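Box 3.1. Reading complex inputs
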Amino acid sequence: EAGVVQSPRYKIIEKKQPVAFWCNPISGHNTLYWYRQNLGQGPELLIRYENEEAVDDSQLPKDRFSAERLKGVDSTLKIQPAELGDSAVYLCASSDLERGQYFGPGTRLTVL
Amino acid sequence: AQSVAQPEDQVNVAEGNPLTVKCTYSVSGNPYLFWYVQYPNRGLQFLLKYITGDNLVKGSYGFEAEFNKSQTSFHLKKPSALVSDSALYFCALRDVSNTGKLIFGQGTTLQVKP
């Protein structure tokens, strides 16, 4: 089966610019997660979706971050404007009940 | 508060020798524990999980993990390391109050030398 797809894989932008990341989860997975992984650390949850509903966005910096999951399939995570501290790897994951979460390859964001 | 700790930033082992990557956890209630591996420029790959039952859990690529409730540990093990096992390993705990959310340790780099 196809895995979780993310694009782009790499993104370099200047601070104050906007950026968007896209995720296509595994077919049939209703739950979708966005994590941020800072260098040398484990991933931290930003937002979790059940179908198209954001059920946990308590860790999402809502002043500059936004996310959507239209039709309960693909999802987009946006940062506007980006700051230097946003440089990280942004991971998307989707889950089923058997094995838990499947992760995509991530988008490595560098903010200059 | 729930947390996961991986006390070693890096573990070095010779090829063919047994390896152990340590993980301890803190949670109220029964823990759901996971191990993931991350290769450079790749996403996290699931290795194994402990939900309930046998304390020795077998997973992918010959890895296994031993759950120890009294020591609140979930150490990852492999009887004979391969150079290709060199990667970043994460232990994770599923949040008991939030279905699905994973709480990760900071990761341990495993270096297997020929």
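In summary: The first strand of chain B starts at residue 3 and ends at 5.
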